Amino acid sequence: MTSAPAHPPVAYEATLPLSWRRVDDDTGAADFGRTNLLLLRLAMFMEEPPAEPGEGSGADLHRLEAKVDLLLQLELERQLAGAPLPEAVPVCLSAGELAWVAAAVPVAGEEVEVALHLAPGQLPPLRLRGRGVAATAAGEAREATVRLDMAPALAEALERFVFRQHRRAVARRRHGTGKQEQSGG
User: Fold this and answer.
1) Verdict on whether the full-model pTM lies above 0.85
2) Residue 164: which of 12, 5, 9 has the closest Cα?
3) Which is nearest to 107 in space by CA: 145, 147, 149?
4) Could you tell me where the DSSP H helices lie in the chain?
5) Spatial contact of 116 and 16, defined as CB atoms under 8 Å apart
6) What is the DSSP letter of 24?
7) Distance (Å, whole) CA 9 – CA 83
8) pLDDT, tens only, 23-38
9) From 100's CA, which of 11, 57, 138, 176 has a CA 20 to 30 Å away?
10) Are the CB atoms for 2 and 101 separated by under 8 Å?
């Protein structure tokens, strides 16, 4: 297996299905901004432990209702998509950049749209836009780094997601269960 790309101090590293395509304009970029926010929220909700008995409150009921709404919307989108998953590759996601190792990668300066499956088979892909900033040889494969371009609300949600994943990876290493995640969840 090819090694994971180099990463910043706070990053989420995993082997996840990823595809990318070159884009020539901003058409459609706003269409998936709201969906990305929902996907990040749902990915974090799915990882939360269930509430302890007797801890019920109005806030818990509101959270549960929000989860159900998100699941219904995302299930509909998943049914409409129905496409097979792309190849899983080593990725490194930080608050502002995405790096991955694959046979084909974008060149520096190229505008791209990346579909990253954070929870393969459970959620639709996160769709991110950005500009290639580096493409280097990494053995037989190549490593790409894309600087992400997103609205402030999405950037904040992505930063929270990355921080949570990073914190969990540090905890696993400390407790001796430092296996690398394969499915992002």
Assistant:
1) no
2) 12
3) 145
4) 33-47, 58-81, 152-174
5) yes
6) S
7) 34
8) 987 665 566 778 888 8
9) 176
10) yes
